[in-house]
């Protein structure tokens, strides 16, 4: 069992319980009240220089507690003021100490598009994500077979959301490209063993078709890391831990992408 298997098993149970206590009518009403999605991929594509997806992240299974004075709306405002293009908010409770309410509060504090960072196992979660306001969802290729991946993607696109399709190797990229989304994330951290290797992004960027928006994810710390990525043609970045550890999040964000 890898950590990803453990997470997905837990997630399926969690989703079953959430489904059982949520009526379809209630979900539909919340989606109708949510307002239009903000355009996640478009916000990345609109940036001329480094485009940052800044992550609101309290803790992780590999690092434990990252941000003791965790304050989602304050971090969201600091990220926006510092020049981030988009936000990512962890909502998984059991492994990442996240919460749906963190996404709701962070999104309400800014005008940036927000991706719900969670583990999708069922198309129902696409609707649930839209109901809490998400503008995009994450689809982890290594966590799902092709059939469920396409079904969850279809449900998300139907609701006007974007899908960030996450891969970590060549085989995963090939599977990702069978989907409709052309927003690809390369996770430099292998969720099966937590090992980080930023050169994964260099390799996979070279293989991705030119019409893909390509995002390097995880393990990025400094402006020099981003400039090295840019030299390989990578201009979009998903960063959590290194920003969440800063006292002054806004200044740290500006130093990265300003
Ligand atoms: O905190 P980091 O190393 O900057 O990484 C952020 C982000 O890439 C990471 O949180 C992440 C990428 N893919 C995920 C999937 C699930 C949970 C978390 C993630």
UniProtKB/TrEMBL annotation:
Catalytic activity: 1-(2-carboxyphenylamino)-1-deoxy-D-ribulose 5-phosphate + H(+) = (1S,2R)-1-C-(indol-3-yl)glycerol 3-phosphate + CO2 + H2O
Domain Indole-3-glycerol phosphate synthase: 4-256
Keywords of the record: Amino-acid biosynthesis, Aromatic amino acid biosynthesis, Decarboxylase, Lyase, Tryptophan biosynthesis
Keyword Amino-acid biosynthesis in annotation: yes
GO biological process: one example: L-tryptophan biosynthetic process
Pathway: Amino-acid biosynthesis; L-tryptophan biosynthesis; L-tryptophan from chorismate: step 4/5
Domain of life: Bacteria
Enzymatic class: lyase
GO molecular function terms noted in the UniProt entry: indole-3-glycerol-phosphate synthase activity; phosphoribosylanthranilate isomerase activity
Keyword hit for Amino-acid biosynthesis: yes
UniProt-listed Enzyme Commission number(s): 4.1.1.48
Family, similarity comment: Belongs to the TrpC family.
Protein name (database record): Indole-3-glycerol phosphate synthase
Organism, scientific name: Sphingomonas abaci
The gene coding this protein: trpC
């Amino acid at each position: 069992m890898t950590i990803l298997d453990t997470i997905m098993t837990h997630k399926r149970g969690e989703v079953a319980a959430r489904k059982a206590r949520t009526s379809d009518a209630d979900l539909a009403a919340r989606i109708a009240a949510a307002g239009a999605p903000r355009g996640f991929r478009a916000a990345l594509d609109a940036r001329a220089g480094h485009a940052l997806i800044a992550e609101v992240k309290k803790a992780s299974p590999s690092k434990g507690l990252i941000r003791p004075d965790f304050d989602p709306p304050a971090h969201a405002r600091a990220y926006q003021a510092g020049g981030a293009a988009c936000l990512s908010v962890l909502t998984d409770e059991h492994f990442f100490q996240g919460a749906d309410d963190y996404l709701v509060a962070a999104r309400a504090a800014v005008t940036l598009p927000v991706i719900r960072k969670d583990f999708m196992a069922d198309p129902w979660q696409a609707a649930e994500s839209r109901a809490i306001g998400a503008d995009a969802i994450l689809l982890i290729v290594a966590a799902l077979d092709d059939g469920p991946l396409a079904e969850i993607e279809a449900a998300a696109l139907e609701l006007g959301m974007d899908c960030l399709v996450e891969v970590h190797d060549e085989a995963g990229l090939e599977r990702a490209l069978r989907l409709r989304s052309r927003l690809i994330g390369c996770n430099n951290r292998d969720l099966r063993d937590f090992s980080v290797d930023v050169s994964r992004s260099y390799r996979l960027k070279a293989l991705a078709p030119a019409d893909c928006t390509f995002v390097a994810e995880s393990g990025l710390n400094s402006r020099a890391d981003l400039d090295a990525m840019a030299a390989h043609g990578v201009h979009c970045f998903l960063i959590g831990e290194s920003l969440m550890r800063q006292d002054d999040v806004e200044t740290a964000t500006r130093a990265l992408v300003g």
